[in-house]
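Aim 2, interim progress. The first record below pairs a target sequence with its structure tokens.
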Amino acid sequence: MNDHILKSRADEITKAARQFVSETMQKIQAQKPHAVIYTQGQHNAVRALFVAAFGVIDELQTKIKTLEEDVRRLSDQSPLKYVGVWNEHQQYDHGNLCTDHGSLWHANQSTRRRPGTSKDWTLAVKRGKGG
């Protein structure tokens, strides 16, 4: 379930809970227009219901915020892109993949250096015995 759906569902639950409270209070006031009187047990039960409901909503909103941060962080990362065999005249960007001497390398940052000669590259797949 994506974060937009979770947020939408949390908003629906919040709206429904507020509407329920409003309608319940209107019904109570209509029956006893001069005072709203109910037992302490009823008060505690209603309060517990809303504490539980809003606790779930708060938890969902926290999870949604975390998911939104993850989406932002992931969208800032460079996608993996195979760009062919390493060429000394080519600029490689973070996330690029290239082959050199039969091995596959991942560019950790923008570079023109040859794979395996600096920390600009990480070996992704080592060349096989046959090359």
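The second target in this work package is listed in the same format:
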Amino acid sequence: MLRETCCLFVVMMVAFMAQSCTDTDPSGIEYACLSREVEQGAARDSIRMPAAMRTDIREGKFLEPGFSVFVIPDSASVEITQAISVQAVVTGFGSKQVAWYVNDVYGGNAGVGTITQSNPAVYTAPDGILFPDEVIIRAVSLRDSTKADSCAVAILFTVVYVSASSGDDGLGSGGLGNPVKSITRGLEIADPGMTVKVASGTYDHYNGETFPIRLSDDISLFGESRESTVIKGHAASAYNSAVYLTGSSCRLKGFTVRPGPDDNNDCNILIRVGNCNDAVVESVRVYERAQYSVLRVEGALNTLLEECEFVVADGNRLGRGFELVVGDCGTVIRNCAVSGFFNGLFFNYGSDALIEGCMIEGNETGIWLYSDSSPSPEPNPDIGGGARGSAGANTIRDNSHCGLLNSTTNAIYAKFNTWTNAPPVEGVDYCNAGTGAVITE
């Protein structure tokens, strides 16, 4: 045994001159093989150790004979209630077993998180943020308690989880393993920069929601699937809206939004975007009309509306799909579908929206650019080939009154689109009710 230990020490001391190789074990840890020729014979002695340890040896950080403990990784991060794997690599001879501690507590506890006594071990983060927001995981050799190593794990809380079926607004922390029940509670917990992830289910006032659901600065609200994650508004809500995006850089994605639990007149405007910058509404589905409009952008800058589907098939052709009013600027409407409304898209003064890749069909009027004597300026969207660089690629067809109704004095660019007729016919595909023009080619 003494001879083997001495040989190991010699090998480590001359490791920088040794031949080496690397391989990977089933756990994914990369190992280095340090080897030397034995002068007395043809045999080759080899030592297999983590590649990172070989670097330490070469740099002179590890020169003692015997064995040591290395924890992999040496640092990590994990969201509250979630788990990560850590491994202790024990070199040398004898027992490879270790004991695991979290902040010097054997096995950890609910306050700092828990860790299994296996190798690799599984650390599960606590059900809440710590102060300071870091724990130290330590592996101690059972053979020699002076041999130990540790890693620092940052405890993060960047995602709030919501589940109507398994969450609890009173006891839930918002972690993956302990979600809250309502979107309203999830947004109360979330700080700027955080994401609220919502599991499939119906989120209405029976679930504890307070309407409108408000998104403030730099908050993202993501549904699991727009087909199965439903926000259902309520008539008693302020502004008669289901969702209100009031914060800059906020984002709504992956929901079906419905007018209300009782009838289709519970919400005047389902989704409002107002007085904010850089808001995003993406992959939102509506198949029931609101009393007035499905989505209104009002006094906002650089709003992105993308991959939304506002399609109502009740045959009534009432209300508005998209409504851009009161000086919105920089709005982009891309790859959206709108059908079954009196106005598919309605533009009031000041709007310079870019519209491309959209399906606008089966409405009374596909797009109406409204104008009156005041206020100004008149709407001037780019529907294809205009100043904002729209690629067009819109399908504007089968709208019973008119595909594009221009009531302004502006020349509206609407090139590179598909119309009911080819080429488009004035009075059917587009109409000029003012002194402006529609440029289609």
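The helical segments are 2-13, 51-58, 183-189. This observation will shape the mutagenesis plan for the next reporting period.
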